[in-house]
Amino acid sequence: MLKIGDRLPAATLYEFIEVEGGGCSLGPNAFTTEALSAGKTLAVFALPGAFTPTCSAQHVPGYVAAAEAFRAAGVDEILCISVNDAFVMGAWARELQTAGKVRLLGDGSAEFTQATGLTLDLTARGLGLRSQRYSMLVREGVVLSLNVEAPGKFEVSDAATLLRQAQAL
């Protein structure tokens, strides 16, 4: 399992881009973890699924509301990762109005999630392999802090907890 001091595993994540520019075309665009983290401090959080109750009502909105505070604490970008495809993540981003605040990245084949060892098997609930709920601070690809939730909990991966950690750096 991923731990503090580890490098992010090499993987490709996908983001649905609605406005063409900066070398990105409309629709799903691929981004490697290496490119996402190069020269940056990132606040990264992962969750079991787009459009699910806790994720939609609390997890993502908390990071959207705290986006400016994260920037003031030296965080360059906030990334949300879920085992969903880029189309679903793009629709969810529109609904939650995350543009310019939180990038919602799809890990549709669970490549990144499996490489971190932070999987959650929800097959019995009809959801298949998903991500555990967690948050982490990453500087230039290296994990500085990691907050993994106990099953069914939302206590340590929230925006307030990670923001306190970012402010302490």
From TrEMBL:
<keyword id="KW-0575">Peroxidase</keyword>
<dbReference type="GO" id="GO:0034599">
    <property type="term" value="P:cellular response to oxidative stress"/>
</dbReference>
<feature type="active site" description="Cysteine sulfenic acid (-SOH) intermediate">
    <location>
        <position position="55"/>
    </location>
</feature>
<dbReference type="InterPro" id="IPR036249">
    <property type="entry name" value="Thioredoxin-like_sf"/>
</dbReference>
<protein>
    <recommendedName>
        <fullName>Glutathione-dependent peroxiredoxin</fullName>
        <ecNumber>1.11.1.27</ecNumber>
    </recommendedName>
</protein>
<comment type="similarity">
    <text>Belongs to the peroxiredoxin family. Prx5 subfamily.</text>
</comment>
<keyword id="KW-0676">Redox-active center</keyword>
<dbReference type="GO" id="GO:0042744">
    <property type="term" value="P:hydrogen peroxide catabolic process"/>
</dbReference>
<keyword id="KW-0049">Antioxidant</keyword>
<comment type="function">
    <text>Thiol-specific peroxidase that catalyzes the reduction of hydrogen peroxide and organic hydroperoxides to water and alcohols, respectively. Plays a role in cell protection against oxidative stress by detoxifying peroxides.</text>
</comment>
<dbReference type="GO" id="GO:0008379">
    <property type="term" value="F:thioredoxin peroxidase activity"/>
</dbReference>
<keyword id="KW-0560">Oxidoreductase</keyword>
<dbReference type="InterPro" id="IPR037944">
    <property type="entry name" value="PRX5-like"/>
</dbReference>
<dbReference type="GO" id="GO:0045454">
    <property type="term" value="P:cell redox homeostasis"/>
</dbReference>
<feature type="domain" description="Thioredoxin">
    <location>
        <begin position="2"/>
        <end position="168"/>
    </location>
</feature>
<dbReference type="InterPro" id="IPR013740">
    <property type="entry name" value="Redoxin"/>
</dbReference>
<dbReference type="Pfam" id="PF08534">
    <property type="entry name" value="Redoxin"/>
</dbReference>
<dbReference type="InterPro" id="IPR013766">
    <property type="entry name" value="Thioredoxin_domain"/>
</dbReference>
<dbReference type="GO" id="GO:0005737">
    <property type="term" value="C:cytoplasm"/>
</dbReference>
